[in-house]
Amino acid sequence: MENAYNLFINKLFMKADLGKIPLAGTFELTSRCTLDCKMCYIHKGICNKEAQSKEKSTEWWLNLAEECKKRGTLNLLLTGGEPLVRNDFKEIYLKLREMGFLLNINTNATLIDDEYIEFFRVYPPQRLNITLYGCSERTYEELCGDGSAYEKVKYAVEGLKKNGVNIRFNYTVTPLNKDDLSKARAYAGALGIEMKTVTYIFEPVRASGEAFRLSPEEAARVDFENKLQSLTEERLAEIVKSGKKGEQSRRREFLTDECEGISCRAGLSSFWVTYDGKMTPCGMMTQPSVEIEDFNTAWEYMNRAREEIKMPRECKDCEYRKNCDICAAVSLAETGDFSKVPEYACRKARAYYRQVQNLVTKSQK
Questions:
Q1: Dihedral sign, CA of 300, 305, 307, 311?
Q2: H or E element at residue 75
Q3: Are strands 278-280 and 270-273 parallel, antiparallel or unpaired?
Q4: What is the DSSP letter of 84?
Q5: Tens digits of per-residue pLDDT, 15-72?
Q6: Which residues touch 167 (CB under 8 Å, ≥6 apart)?
Q7: Cβ–Cβ < 8 Å for 61, 29
């Protein structure tokens, strides 16, 4: 059933790409959060009055949703910050559900108590994406600033699972929670929950400070070891030798030899709306950006602006490109320019390739 659904959605996106229909969108309802994670790009304090004053009203979001729906939007992701900090979250969620959107929610689950468990049982989203930051109070304390959050998350996860709510874990690997990764995999496996592991962390283009992340080489090692968890060594060697990184090939960011434009769906069939009412192609692209006065005008601007984005020419024929995190958002975040080579991503791709080549060499002996 899931494969049939994914095939259906992929076909919808193919048609949306051709017609420049905004099939999928993200509503970033707030920048406030219950946690203060070291690697997060948007995590204002839950009581931050300045941040709260910039948030758009219930009516604004619902009016925008009506405009999106008329233009063809079907999928909506509700995120933050932590979207559940808003007192009107349930109202927004239920109204969007009534409009017919397929809704996904990004949450850290710290606010999901018995009342919310019952709420999501009765009104289930398409999926709850729960960010898991570690497997101990100590890790949550060191990484997120709140050790007590760990037990809250466990309680929420197990209650939601018991009540049939569709959950996926997101696990972003950092220097402070890398040692918990195997425990997180085991925990997810025991509960029958899919877990997506991320090793690339953006430069904090929407926050201050430096990126809190693994070295490129260590990130590549985690990627490699994570892949080994789901594939035999022989199968991994076959995949990489054929020029792919994993079971599914990624859509590349290059179109033709003459044009180094982007080919991802950002600004073509998907969009992102920030908590203070700006549209961007995706959450980590600070440009192009436009203040939303009405959805159609903003969307048409985004369509035009994405066509002006040019990727690094040096990357187009790079031998490591298929194993690289390169995308428009990565280039912009790492270098401040879409057309410049992101060195962190290059080092990570080369390190990943070396690990795979070592495996290939080993398998040939």
A1: negative
A2: strand 75-79
A3: antiparallel
A4: G
A5: 999 999 999 999 999 999 999 999 998 889 999 999 999 999 999 999 999 999 999 9
A6: 127, 128, 129, 130, 157, 160, 161, 193
A7: yes
Cα distance between the two ends of the chain: 42
- Give the Cα-Cα-Cα angle 269, 272, 273 (nearest 5 degrees): 135
User: At 116, phi and psi to the nearest 5?
Assistant: -70, -35
DSSP per-residue letters across 275-305: TTSEEESSTT--SS-EE-SSHHHHHHHHHHH
Nearest to 41 by CA among 125, 119, 103, 131: 131
> Radius of gyration (Cα) for the chain, nearest Å?
21
Q: What does DSSP say about strands 167-172 and 127-131: parallel, antiparallel, or unpaired?
A: parallel
Supply 72's token pair: 């063809």
Q: Tell me the sheet residues that pair with 322.
A: none
CB 247 within 8 A of CB 257: no
Give the tokens for residue 156. 């929420």
How is residue 176 written in tokens?
A: 């402070």
The DSSP element (H or E) to which 306 belongs, if any, is helix 295-306
Q: Domains of the chain, with CATH numbers?
A: 22-251+269-310 (3.20.20.70)
Whole-structure pTM value? 0.91
What's the pLDDT band for 365 if we cut at 50, 70, 90? Answer: low
DSSP β-bridge partners for residue 169: 130, 195
For residue 45, whether the previous peptide bond is cis, meaning omega lies within 30 degrees of 0, is no
